[in-house]
Each structure stands twice: as C-alpha cells, then as structure tokens.
Design brief:
The structure holds two protein chains of two kinds.
Chain A lengths: L3 E12 L2 E13 L4 E5 L6 H9 L6 E10 L2 E2 L5 H10 L1 E4 L3 H4 L6 H13 L3 H14 L5 H4 L9 H13 L5 E5 L7 H18 L2 E6 L2 H7 L2 E6 L2 E7 H6 L4 H9 L39 H5 L16 H6 L1
Parallel strand pairs in A: 3-8, 3-9, 6-7, 7-8
Antiparallel strand pairs in A: 1-2, 1-4, 4-5, 9-10
Chain B lengths: L2 E16 L4 E17 L3 E5 L6 H8 L7 E6 L2 E2 L9 H6 E4 L3 H4 L6 H11 L6 H11 L16 H13 L5 E5 L7 H18 L2 E6 L2 H7 L2 E6 L2 E7 H6 L4 H9 L5 H6 L30 H5 L5 E2 L5 E2 L2 H6 L2 E2 L4
Parallel strand pairs in B: 3-8, 3-9, 6-7, 7-8
Antiparallel strand pairs in B: 1-2, 1-4, 4-5, 9-10, 10-12, 11-12, 11-13
Classes of the chains: A alpha/beta, B alpha/beta.
The structure holds adenosine-5'-triphosphate (2 copies) and magnesium ion (2 copies).
The site of one adenosine-5'-triphosphate has 15 residues of chain A, from helix 1.
C-alpha cells in the first residue's frame, strides 16, 4: 500500500472575488522508503502542493478538489489538532532557509528537545539524550556543547543539519524537503543531501524532494514528477525520464542545462518564452505557447494525464532510441 | 595576444571595527594576492563558494572598491590609482551585469528611460532613440518593452534590459557577477546563449563570476578557482575539468551531480568534510588545509604559490611541486 496517495488535488487562491488555480488536478503516490522528486521551474506549484499535504496552506489558499491519503487516513478530513499530531510524528518538513524556521532567541537544544518531548512524550532527561544522539547522527560535532548555542552561532550548513535533526526527532515515515540545499554552497549541499539519503535508507523514511536542480534529482531520486504551471506533466523513474523524456517540457528542461559530462561546444537549447503565470489564462495545454511541437489541438484541449504524461502528442521513446 | 585586463598581485582587506571609537579589531582578507590576466575577446570565469571573494574582486576591477595592495592594468594603463574624472574613460569601456536586475534597475523608470539616461549622461554622440531601439533588439526584446517598468517584466526579461544597459556605450569588458544565477533553467539557457552570441558579435571580453560550475565551464574559455580569497587553480576549461590538479577543484567538481541517473549511480563521490573557515580568521599556511584530504605538515605552515603545469594550467598545492611543474614566476 502506498504511504501517501494524492488524487486529483487542486488548490486555488481567492483574490478580489476570483479563484485562480495554483495546483491543477495533481495525482501521485509515494511508496514507503522511496525518494520522489518534484521538479519544475519557479511558480510551478511544487511548494503549494506539498504545503497542502502538510495542512499548512496560507489563509488565502484552499483545496478545491481531491483527496490526500496518508497511511490509510484521509488527511483533508482531519481536525487541525489531529493534523498537528501527524505533522510532528509522521510527516515532517525541511525548508530552504533554516534561519526562518528556527527561533533565533532559543537555544538549539531547547528547540530539538521540545519537538521530542511533545511528539514522543519523553522525559526531559531522555529527550536530552535523544537530542544529542540526533545531532551526532546529522554530523554536528561536540553535540553536548552545541545544544546550548543559538541559531546564529551555526553556519548555514550546520543550521540545515539542525533542521534535519528536528525533522527526524519522532522518526517520521515521510520527510518533505523543500529545496533543502538551494541556499548552500555546492560542497555543503553534497554533504547535506548525502546525509539525508543515508538517513532515509537507514530508517526506511520516504522523502519528497523538491528541487529545480536536475542533477540533484539524478543523483538522489528514485522517481520524478515534473511540474509545469500547476500540473504534473510527466512522471516516471529518474532513469526513464532522463533517457527518454516524453513531455516536450521535460525534454526542454534537459536540453537547457549545461552539463559537466558533455562537450562544452554543444549549444544549449533553451525553451522559448517565459514560464506560464497562473494568473494568465491559457487555453488548452498550458505549455503550448512555449512548445516546439505545438499543434491546433494543443491550443484547444487540455490534455489528460495518461500513462504518466499529460500531452496530446507525447514524444516517442522508441523513436528516440533509434536515432 | 595582449592582455586587456591584468590583475596584478591584488589584495583587498576590509577592516572590522568595533566600539564607539571604531577601533579596528580585525580584518577580513576578502582577496589575497590574486594575479590574473584576461585576453581581449575571451570569457574568463571565476568560481568558488560563498564568501571566497569573487564579488570583491569584481568590484575592485570596476573601481568600486580600492585594492589594499597590487595594481589593475587595463589596455596598458594602470587604472588602480585613477580617481574622479580621470576614471571616466575607463568607466565607459567597462560595464557590469549583476545577479538581480530587479534591484539594479530603477523601479520608477521604464526600460526605455533607463537606457536613454545611460546614453545621455555619458554624452552618447549618435541618435539616442535609435540606439535604444537597437539595444532592445540586440537583446531579443520587442520594441514595446521600452514602455515597461521592471515589475511588469519577468526575471529573464529584466536581465535582458540589464544586458542592454551594459551594452549601451559599446564597452570592451563586461563584468558579469552571477548574471544568470537567479534565473530558472529554461530562461538561464536563453541568457547564456545571448551572452555568448554578444561576445562573438561585438568582440567582448567577459569576467564571468558564478558558483554554478556547469554554467561557468560552458561559457568560459579559461577559469580560476578561488577559495578564501586566494586562487587555488587556473587553466582552460578543458585543463581544469578534464585534469583538475588541486584537491579543492576536484572536490568542487565531485560535488556537482550530473543530470544523468545512470552515470550518477556508477560515479563515486566523496563529499568534502567540514565547513568553509571564517575569512576573519583564515587557516595558517594553505587556506584549504583544514578540509584537504591530502594535507601534509608543510601545508599548515607555508602558503603554496602557483605551480605551472603546462599550457595555461597552474595550481597552488605543495603536493604538485614534488610531482610536476615548476613554480610560476611573477612576470
Ligand atoms: N499565498 C499565496 N497567495 C497567492 N499566490 C500564491 C500564494 N502562494 C503561492 N502562490 C502562487 O502559486 C504559484 C505556485 O507557487 P509555489 O510556491 O508552489 O511554486 P514553486 O513551484 O514552489 O516555486 P519555487 O521554485 O519558486 O519555490 C506561484 O505562482 C505563486 O506565486
Ligand atoms: N565592504 C565589506 N566590508 C567587510 N567585509 C566585506 C565587505 N565586502 C565583502 N566582505 C567580506 O569579504 C568576503 C568576500 O566576500 P565576497 O562578497 O567578495 O564573496 P563572494 O565570493 O562574492 O561570495 P558570494 O558567492 O556569496 O557572492 C566575505 O567574507 C565578506 O563577508
Ligand atoms: Mg517553492
Ligand atoms: Mg558574490
């Protein structure tokens, strides 16, 4: 049974009496222990769709359709209090900027211990012992001393380790990591992602890894959802998607990035135009104004999501292989 | 070939002051003894992690920061001592493009007004409206963009206006500080291609700063890798990426995952240990020794100079002195 099952999820924002869809009929599953990546450009709905799972949508946003089942429970039917318990114990989140999610005026130790005491019901002394072992596990040296320090005593990479320790406090089944290393330097990014991968493997934790970096997806994810303008346009294993993308947007993304493992004289093939803004109405397929293969049907009809791709004319992997 | 820009043994140290008397209590060695030359028409890349001094070096070249020591030569003239009016000719020949065009463009001016102002202030002799139209076209913007304000454009379009502004006075050198870093991949590719096209078309020279190794390698003919204010390794893109010789360069390349799941599975990567030390209190000897997997006693005591490795290739590491090359002489 999947750990998380999202079906037909739509999220809208209400502004000045009109509703605009930010997430459009998104469906996917996360199996226990797997790492699923959400990739896509800025504004494609990666964060909003994940915040919906956590029950943390901003006031102006609301779920307008669909269901979210986690471990057999319908999350959308839970009370705020029940949802808060799930967040502490079963699903936790790691954000891009740990400084904003840590309280600057409280010691690191009290913040980790609070999470442990609340969610596991441990005594103060046991919580302290667990906090120390968690900090050690995430690679914070000299954990006993560092418990007493405040967030500003930690570098960006160290703060992210602390956030991971807090996320791990109750040994959750699912971690949602929203651009966890985007603000960090490459060598620190590699340390943090290696750490998260090891933890997920050791604890059997599933992870939704949100990123716009196609290299990170290739190195760390089992499966990938590619999002564009609020929709999942393609889904598959990382290997399938990179070898033979079927949605023109996925193909475009892959051809846009310069790569170290390729001749530098290979010119980049950018996608024309600009990412679709959710507030701009676009008929048919929302990618059609940028699509190099656009046809009349694409302007008229919204493509259904079938066999892992939302496109009227998916690229043919067999054809690609032949070339 | 002749160097258009030569950065000669440049150091930039910022004083750190404290208390009511603003006494200097320490100094940040943002840039330490950096020597580089840029040939006319090449794209030269500067890579390194946050705080290693890339922007400070760029600002020194742009004469926004004074070097603590060393000199900057442009087209045969030492420009590091020039001030005020004497700098005007240099400022016309050198332009800059920054990361966030939103903060570098005036929010209350349309693209057209921004470009007209640059031309007017600098006494552009030709037909200004015609030049504005031409600049927009060169940067792939339709004429209607002249009427738009920064908030009415996307990030990529704003960056095109930023590039148009940089090109306005026909500069020879453009300093690009993280010029494509804030852009989405598909838009980043558009701007990278535009920058490449413009360099060829107008014979421009770029000092291109970035932290994305793949982008810098793609755009630049030669690259220098910085760490804590110092150059660790320099060479052509091929020399640096095909045969990296400095352990830091190797670690940087290793840290970048390729968009290729099959290759990534087969590839061994060992993440560099530890954190970047504070530039307020840099390690003794080789600044990299605290994180270096092959550090020796000597690395903790002495600062390694650049060792020539043939071609344009040079690296600052004692491990190389024993195996290959000769210490690079100061020219
Ligand atoms: N509270 C809000 N009110 C109005 N619009 C919102 C709100 N939150 C998000 N949006 C809009 O919803 C869309 C999707 O946003 P989301 O944050 O999910 O994008 P994302 O894919 O995570 O992008 P990024 O890569 O930049 O983080 C964007 O157009 C965004 O502007
Ligand atoms: N005006 C200043 N006064 C004091 N310190 C400064 C000043 N400008 C920069 N620094 C310090 O000098 C060092 C180098 O900074 P710089 O901005 O050049 O790094 P960078 O390589 O551009 O980093 P990033 O990748 O984050 O942009 C940093 O430690 C920075 O804090
Ligand atoms: Mg987001
Ligand atoms: Mg900088």
């Amino acid at each position: 049974m999947p750990l998380l099952e999202i079906d037909d999820l739509s999220v809208c924002v209400s502004q000045d009496g009109t509703d605009t869809a930010l997430v459009r009929s998104v469906s996917y599953v996360v199996e226990p222990g797997e790492t699923l990546a959400l990739v896509g450009e800025s504004g494609s709905g990666k964060s909003v769709s994940s915040l919906a799972v956590m029950g943390l949508l901003a006031k102006a946003l609301k779920v307008t359709s669909g269901s979210i089942r986690f471990d057999g429970q319908d999350l959308l039917a839970l009370s705020a209090e029940e949802m808060r318990k799930i967040r502490g114990r079963d699903i936790s989140m790691v954000f891009q900027e740990p400084m904003t999610s840590l309280n600057p005026v409280r010691s690191i130790g009290s913040q980790i211990m609070e999470s442990i005491e609340e969610n596991l019901g441990l005594s103060r002394a046991d919580a302290r012992a667990r906090a120390i072992s968690l900090l050690k596990e995430v690679g914070v040296a000299d954990a006993e001393r560092r418990l007493k320090q405040y967030p500003h005593h930690f570098s960006g990479g160290m703060r992210q380790r602390v956030m991971i320790a807090i996320a791990l406090a109750a040994d959750p089944k699912l971690i949602i990591a929203d651009e966890p290393t985007t603000a960090l330097d490459v060598t620190i990014q590699a340390q943090i992602l290696d750490l998260m991968a090891r933890i997920c493997r050791d604890h059997g934790t599933a992870m939704i890894l949100i990123t716009h970096n196609l290299g990170i997806v290739a190195r760390y994810a089992d499966r990938v959802n590619v999002m564009y303008s609020g929709r999942i346009v393609e889904t598959g294993t990382a290997r399938e998607i990179y070898r033979a993308p079927r949605h023109p947007y996925t193909e475009g993304l892959l051809q846009s990035v310069p790569r170290l493992d390729q001749d530098r004289s290979v010119p980049l093939k950018p996608i024309r135009g600009n990412p679709a803004d959710p507030f701009t109405p676009i008929s048919g397929c929302r990618f059609h104004p940028r699509c190099p293969y656009v046809a009349a049907r694409c302007r008229a009809e919204v493509p259904a999501f079938e066999n892992g791709v939302a496109c009227h004319f998916p690229l043919d992997p067999a054809q690609k292989e032949a070339v | 070939m002749s160097a258009l820009l030569r950065i000669e043994d440049v150091s930039v140290h910022f004083p750190v002051r404290k208390g009511v008397l603003q006494r200097q209590v320490a100094e940040v060695r943002a840039v330490d003894s950096v020597t580089l030359s840029l040939e006319k028409g090449e794209a030269f890349g500067l890579v390194g992690e946050s705080g290693c001094g890339k922007t400070t070096l760029a600002r020194t070249v742009l004469r926004l920061v004074d070097p603590t020591s060393g000199a900057i030569w442009f087209d045969g003239q030492n420009i590091s001592g020039l001030r005020g009016k004497a700098l005007a000719p240099y400022r016309r020949r050198v332009a800059a493009i920054f990361q966030d065009p939103f903060s570098s463009l005036n929010p209350r001016m349309t693209s057209g007004q921004t470009l007209r102002e640059v031309l007017k202030v600098n006494g552009y002799p030709g037909d200004i409206p015609a030049r504005v139209a031409e600049l927009l076209t060169i940067c792939g913007l339709a004429p209607r963009f002249a009427e738009l304000y920064p908030h009415e454009m996307s990030g990529g379009q704003r960056q095109r206006v930023g590039i148009a502004r940089a090109l306005a006075l026909d500069p020879e050198l453009i300093v690009c500080d993280e010029a494509v870093s804030a852009l989405d991949v598909s838009i980043q590719a558009q701007i990278i291609n535009l920058l490449e096209e413009l360099r060829v078309k107008f014979g421009l020279t770029y000092l291109f700063i970035g932290h994305d190794l793949s982008v810098v390698r793609h755009l630049c003919d030669r690259i220098a890798v910085m760490y804590l204010g110092r150059i660790m390794e320099t060479g052509t893109s091929a020399e640096l990426f095909d045969t990296p010789r400095h352990p830091y360069t190797r670690a940087l390349i290793d840290a970048v995952p390729a968009p290729d799941p099959v290759g990534e599975e087969a590839r061994e990567h060992v993440a560099l240990k530890g954190e970047i030390p504070s530039p307020l209190d840099p390690p003794s000897g080789c600044v990299f020794h605290t994180r270096c997997p092959i550090a020796m006693d000597r690395c903790r005591a002495e600062v390694p100079g650049l060792t020539r490795l043939g071609g344009h290739h040079a690296a600052a590491c004692f491990a190389l002195e024993t195996t290959a090359g000769t210490p690079a002489k100061k020219e």
